[in-house]
Amino acid sequence: MQINSTHRFSNRVDDYVKYRPSYPPTIISLLQEKYQLKNNSRIADIGSGTGISSALFLDAGYEVIGVEPNKEMRDRSVELLANYTKFEVKDGTAENTELEAHSIDVIVAGQAFHWFDRLKTKKEFQRILAASGKVILLWNERLTQTPFEKDYDELIVKHGIDYVSVDHRNIDEQKIQTFFEPGACAIEVLANWQIFDFEGLKGRLLSSSYMPSHHEAGYEEMVGDLRLLFDRYQQNGEIRINYETKLYIGSFR
Predict the structure, then answer these.
(1) For every one of its 253 residues, what pLDDT tens digit does the chain have, with 9 covering 90 and above?
(2) Which long-range contacts (CB under 8 A, 24 or more apart) does 221-226 make?
């Protein structure tokens, strides 16, 4: 059964909050020093989810407006980011943010762009961006280089409901470059990682919308296979998952 992308994470919010990777804080200094991100930039985080990407910019003192269609994730972001006075969140989509025209200096989409209708989203981004506005697309891309990483990916392919069709890596760099035309985008890659015990690794797996959740068919078999995988590769009771944090920084001009 296909699930509307705006509802895919409704039953996974707790695991998403606890186990999804954050982004390297060095992103901020990179954007400021190399891409002229100004201290007073007004940022819209599109597909803001539980606020992982919003927090990156809020911690650096930026004003952030989150736009998130999923009520459960939107409500959790309000709870988690309650101490940030410069954060607000709206019910909207990438294709219809309901933000004012030319009111945004920087658009951020963290781990979300692959869910968007690219043609409609481009028109909406062009509408809400200020004249010199930038768009930053970013993903934590899980690596498949070590023996554990390769076997973990095979486990996801085996048990995932629609992993192959919804994997964000289906949006290749050519499609992203096309999105920015007639402008262009630059690409930056940073190292990132997480270290988990078994419960953490299970939570990380369950935070993905394409994996069977509790009480769904295939869940017990999946967890059993994960236990075997963890026991095979763990060192001192821990497993490391490595990522490349990829940023695509561009404009439409």
Answers:
(1) 334 444 444 455 788 889 999 999 999 999 999 999 999 999 999 999 999 999 999 999 999 999 999 999 999 999 999 999 999 999 999 999 999 999 999 999 999 898 899 999 999 999 999 998 999 999 999 999 999 999 999 999 999 886 654 445 557 888 999 999 999 999 999 999 999 999 999 999 998 878 888 888 889 999 999 999 999 999 999 999 999 999 999 999 8
(2) 221/159, 222/155, 222/159, 225/155, 225/158, 225/159, 226/155, 226/198, 226/201, 226/202
Tokens of 49: 């989810």
Measuring CA to CA, which residue among 91, 68, 69, 89 is closest to residue 78?
89
* C-alpha atoms less than 13 angstroms from C-alpha of 236 in its C-beta half-sphere: 2
Contact 144, 150 (CB under 8 A): yes
Rounded CA-CA distance 69/98 in Å is 12
42 and 66 in contact (C-beta within 8 Å)?
no
Distance CA 206, CA 42 (A): 33
- Name the residue among 36, 40, 42, 3 with its Cα closest to residue 160: 3
| β-bridge mates for residue 139, sequence order | 246
